[in-house]
TrEMBL record:
Residue stretches spanning the membrane: none
Enzyme class: transferase
Species whose genome carries this gene: Geodermatophilus ruber
Assigned protein family: Belongs to the CobT family.
Alphabetically ordered keywords of this record: Cobalamin biosynthesis, Glycosyltransferase, Transferase
Protein name, UniProt field: Nicotinate-nucleotide--dimethylbenzimidazole phosphoribosyltransferase
Any single biological process term in GO: cobalamin biosynthetic process
GO MF annotations in UniProt: nicotinate-nucleotide-dimethylbenzimidazole phosphoribosyltransferase activity
Amino acid sequence: MTKPPGSLGVLEDVAAQLAGIAGSCPAPLPAPATVAVFAGDHGVHAQGVTPWPQEVTAQMVANFLAGGAVVNAFAAELGAVVAVVDVGVAGRLEPAPFPAPELIDRRIRPGTADLAVGPAMTVDEARRAVEVGIEVATTLAPGSGCLVTGDMGICNTTPAAALVCAFTGATPQEATGRGTGIDDPTLARKIEVVARAVGRIPSRPATPEAALAVLAEVGGLEHAALAGFVLGAAATRTPVLLDGVIAGSAALVAAALCPTALEYALAGHAGAEPGHALALQALGLRPLLGLDLRLGEGTGALLALPLVAGAARALRDVATFDSAGVTEKGR
Ligand SMILES: Cc1cc2ncn([C@H]3O[C@H](COP(=O)(O)O)[C@@H](O)[C@H]3O)c2cc1C
Ligand SMILES: O=C(O)c1cccnc1
């Protein structure tokens, strides 16, 4: 390529990873990208770990379908498609007005149980939610050059923090953050809730069965589906761009189920939630962007898409020294 070796820095690693994923060099461009927003609710809402009412999850699902959320704005800017999956919303979902895209209805149950007091879901429900993610990824993959993780679920930074503790060995104080923006008393309560949940499970589950049991005990339905989404992306040799702490915690589950699946994942950004950095560090993933985002929905992953596309296009389109008649460097 007509550039000094190494001059594209991290993007050279991205290009090499894309080529490895596709098994061809140059790799295909990561277009079109499809962001799958997995939505679910959480019984731990009863503990007062977020200032937002639970019905905001269902209302935001309607907003995604109507095209009115931040993820829709970023997707429109970047030419990405938004798919919305109900894997466990608690509320009734009104049919979206024509010509809105259809909701993918894969609801396992209307929200999890309260993970502060007992298992969030059964192991069978967790497995079925993982399978929803696998199904969505393998269905979308043939028409997508890149898959992007998205999430919606009021309270979902609480199970994310618990999963980060379980899979990295971090303490609840280290892994728990302010989510959508909570005050000090709420944060103290949230840390206490995460500690109670994590106290019931083994640290660093060593087998896929143990990982699934941890996911059922302290996770969420969208976390489970996102773990499956990463597995499905890998199974179809499709790059998957990870968003924030929900995706990061789900990727820890995916890595415990199948370590090599993470070779197909790229970290879009470093989010503000402390558990996100812990998850990425444990996974050995370097985030492409650092913008202090703390939204979710897939927004931070989508913003990294032009970097991934740039890396792929450079590898494909840039002339060689020979073909462009550019003189190579001397000694
Ligand atoms: C209007 C609104 C839109 C959102 N879009 C994503 N989230 C994000 O914030 C929530 C997690 O934060 P916590 O654990 O503090 O509740 C999730 O719904 C996540 O997707 C939103 C949250 C709100 C309120
Ligand atoms: O990092 C995230 O994905 C995130 C952070 C705060 C709230 N919701 C999501």
